[in-house]
Amino acid sequence: MAKIGKRLKAIREGFDRTIGYKIDDAIAKVMKKSTAKFEESIDISIELGIDPKKTEQNVKGSVNLPHSNGKKFKIAVFAEGEDANDAKKAGADFVGSDDLIEKVKEGKVEFERVIATPEMMKKLSSIARILGPKGLMPNPKTGTVTKNILMTVDAMKKGMIEFKNDKFGSVKASIGRKSFESAKIKQNIESFLSQISKLKPQTRKGDLLRGVSISSTMGIGVKLDNAILKDYR
Q1: How many C-beta atoms lie closer than 10 Å to residue 224's C-beta?
Q2: Which of 41, 47, 123, 126 has its CA 20 to 30 A from that of 182?
């Protein structure tokens, strides 16, 4: 059996991970257990009541967190003409069409978020095999294929994050930083859960949210009381 490090052992001591807490109490527990020497992110993990093997039950989308998640990232916009001008005005880090596509083909993927206009999607098919595995391929369901370039770039800079369930039927995302006020983390959590609850697949019966936990980067998961989830069903 692998040895448990002193820091992790201290975090686990006296803590029952099977207990569900109210949001405020869960955040307090996570903060107390966040003992790394760097500023940890605060993450959320949501267990969904879906069959991830059934495409029609997959959950993906985006949410505008009221207080961002504190992470900085570079945005690329694939657009032409006035749409490209709008992207530059909005502060996108990379803007282009065929030229930007060529850079991606050369392996120059220097961005973490991608937006594209509907007209560009046919061209982007040539680099789908590069963007797809990195989770960067624009998708109408996540709001990243759009004609509202100004609004979308601005929203992304202010706190819009994309999400989709993994092969186990869970959604994971960063929803804050340890330096955030607890009230801001709570509001981000509530906004995230509210958005997820709106995306229940039509073919899925029963509750969509099965369980939720939050943690810091190097901490342990703290469960939310399932009674809280009734507000998001």
Answers
A1: 23
A2: 47
Is the Cβ–Cβ distance between 232 and 49 less than 8 Å?
A: no
The identity of residue 42, as a single letter, is I
Sign of the CA dihedral with 113 first, then 154, 43, and 232 last: negative
Determine contact, residues 26/224, Cβ cutoff 8 Å: yes
Q: How far apart are CA 225 and CA 214, in angstroms?
A: 11
List the domains of the chain with CATH numbers: 15-68+160-232 (3.30.190.20), 75-158 (3.40.50.790)
Per-residue pLDDT reduced to its tens digit, 83-126: 999 999 999 999 999 999 999 999 999 999 999 999 999 999 99
Nearest of 150, 169, 171 to residue 161 by alpha carbon:
171
The model's pTM? 0.80
DSSP secondary structure code for residue 145 in this structure: B
Backbone angles phi, psi at 65, to 5 degrees: -70, 130
Identity of residue 107 = G
